[in-house]
Amino acid sequence: MAITLRIKKRFKVLKASIICDKEIRTILSECMNTATRIYNKLVYRLRREYENRKGEVDLSYKHLSAIIRTISGSKNIYAQSVENICKEVVRDFYSVSRKRDKDQLPGYRMKTTLSPIRYRKYGFKFFKINDTTYLTLSLGRRRQDGIKNVTVKLDSVPDIDLNKVESIKVSYNDRTDTFEVSMRVEVK
User: Alpha carbon of 157 to those of 19, 96, 107, 133, 177: distances in Å?
Assistant: First the structure.
């Protein structure tokens, strides 16, 4: 009889500030606005479906992909990030289905909100030049403006092995008016 042990990985999240010029700030803001628009459109369509079908919603990836194809500008963001937005919406709808109060469907995000962009394992790359850490983010291959990736400088990066970063989240901090990256690192 073979016994298999499942070892659960442990992670910690570290943050760093992003230093970028005005052009890259505009590109990142545009991507985050697109993420907000995708989230809101998915929630809108699924809420309508929930009301029309009397409480049933099709949360399959095939159905969500069909909805995303109808959203303008959805190709201006990395495909894996769009997939993460879909997972977020599905999680929000499943949390509603577990509750007894069905009137509380997932809400919308404000149009002016910059939603975070998540990358898991792919779509980002770290490199160092003279003790300065840089991060290259993929924006997707089908962008209308032709920009496929951006490289930003990171400020105050913790002393870690950047090869062990599992995923990152690029977000906007309203209080400091800066972009930040949260790095999820495996801990032994």
Answer: 12, 38, 35, 7, 18
Does residue 118 sit in helix, strand or coil? strand
CA angle 107, 34, 128 (to 5 degrees): 120
- Classify each residue of 130-152 as buried b or exposed e, where b means 16 or more C-beta atoms within 10 Å of its C-beta: eeebebebbbbeebeeeeebbeb
Chain centroid, CA 3 distance in Å: 37
At a CB cut-off of 8 Å and minimum separation 6, what does 186 contact? 9, 10, 11, 164, 166
Q: Give the predicted TM-score (pTM) of the model.
A: 0.83
pLDDT digits (tens, 9 = 90+) for 142-178: 787 888 889 999 887 777 788 888 899 999 998 888 9
Residue boundaries of the structural domains of the chain: 10-21+114-187, 34-98
